[in-house]
Amino acid sequence: MTVYWNWKLTRDGAIRFGLMLMVFSIVYQNVAWLNSKFLPQLPVGYILLIYFGIFIIRHVYRVLKWYSVWFKYGTRQKLENFIVHLCIYFIVISVALSVPNLNMPRLAAAITATNESNKIPVFESEVPDLNSIITDSKDFDLIEKNETRITSSTLWINYNTYAIGGDGHIIKLKQNSSAKNPTYQEVLNFLQTDQTDKCNYVLDKFVCADFAEQVQNNAEIAGYNCAYVDISFTDNAGHACNAFNTTDRGLIFIDCTNSLEGGGPYNGDCIVNIVKGSIYKPQYLFNSGGWYNLPMGTVKSYTVYWD
């Protein structure tokens, strides 16, 4: 038996493999978000991973089987064709895995916002100088009362990605030039008057990022330094809360996200301990009437943003 190398089939196979590998990578990066979009009994993210994983393994098996046939029955240029074929697949794999990390929750929210109000998307091709964020009039609003100055600047998660709310708007943190670090009692007094915990959690409209943004803004306006905290869990899910650097108890973390629909205690403000590798479980600060929070996950990492 004599076999010949068909470069047309090689091209088509490499393209199919590259597309499958790229989709597999995107699904892997957003598996938690995909699972959350459907019934808990139907983990779509894991199903897609298995589906595309099977096709990738099948493709690799068929390629290896072809190598065996080629070296056994190939007519000429056995080694040359084999090396060229390997190089083609190395190129395909490099291109497929070099696709930027597509954060689907933020991308979906940005697309919705663009359709509704022509807002800019989450990922920008050109990133402004971070030093200009608080000096460009497009990036902050300035309010002056006597000698107090309150500015509002974009929250950048990294050099090319900024945080957005549930409806796709850009998260902005306020900075009060006269703000101070509060005492623990002053934090409690502020939370009792702040009404953020009375808002309803609505997916794709008002989520944990919006709660954290509103608390941070209100605290700065009230004269207290307050941080926005971005949290990642080990299951790739994310969350946001706030932090105060109190003068008597040090750094404390406050979670005001109200995810209870039509129920819960009168005051939903919580305190939570955040440590890498520990369980994230908010505890109500005030009388909860018997209500309590379930663990949200294991903390993989967190970042505190003061401005």
TrEMBL record:
The chain crosses the membrane at residues 14-31, 43-61, 82-99. Keywords: Membrane, Transmembrane, Transmembrane helix. The keyword Membrane applies. It comes from the Archaea. This is Uncharacterized protein. It comes from Methanosarcina barkeri MS. The lineage of its organism: Archaea, Methanobacteriati, Methanobacteriota, Stenosarchaea group, Methanomicrobia.
